[in-house]
Amino acid sequence: MQNPFGSQQIPGSYFNLKERMFQKVQSAKVNDHIFEIIQMAYKEALIRENVGLSRPERKRLLAQILKLVLEDMIKKLDERTNTA
After folding, report:
1. Which residue of 7, 64, 72, 80 has the lowest C-beta tally within 10 Å?
2. Are residues 17 and 9 in contact, defined by beta-carbon separation less than 8 angstroms?
3. Least confident of 11-15, 23-27, 40-44, 61-65
4. CA geometry: angle at 39 spanning 49 and 82, to 5°?
5. Which long-range CB contacts under 8 A does 68-74 form with residues at least 24 apart?
6. What single-letter DSSP state applies at residue 9?
7. Structural contact between residues 9 and 19, judged by C-beta atoms closer than 8 angstroms
8. How sure is the predictor about 71, in pLDDT bands with cuts at 50, 70 and 90?
9. What is the C-alpha separation between 84 and 73, in angstroms, rounded?
10. What is the DSSP letter of 10?
11. What pLDDT was estimated at residue 63?
12. C-alpha–C-alpha distance, residues 44 and 50, integer Å
């Protein structure tokens, strides 16, 4: 539903809601915060485990861990959505 006085959305409109919410979340740099949290936990775990890896190995393992964490988050989200 368009505002008759211009191209702005009427507050409470569902028109492009998903896109608008995504843009607002992205502008809050949520992805960066999530990545930083995972990266810090990963570095701390490597230190605690006293694991010696080359820089390429650390980057590759971080990518694998990040993927697993995000897949787990999606799985949990799906479970919560299905039980609601």
Report:
1. 7
2. no
3. 11-15
4. 105
5. 69/38
6. B
7. no
8. very high
9. 17
10. P
11. 97
12. 10
* Token couple for 72: 């787990």
Beta-bridge partners for 2: 9
**Per-residue pLDDT tens over the stretch 14-40:** 888 899 899 999 999 999 999 999 999
Tell the burial category of 52 from Cβ atoms under 10 Å away from its Cβ (0-12, 13-18, 19+): exposed
pTM for this entry = 0.72
* Sign of the C-alpha dihedral computed for residues 10, 12, 17 and 22 taken in this order: positive
State which amino acid sits at residue 55.
R
Measured CA to CA, the distance from residue 1 to residue 75 in angstroms comes to 34
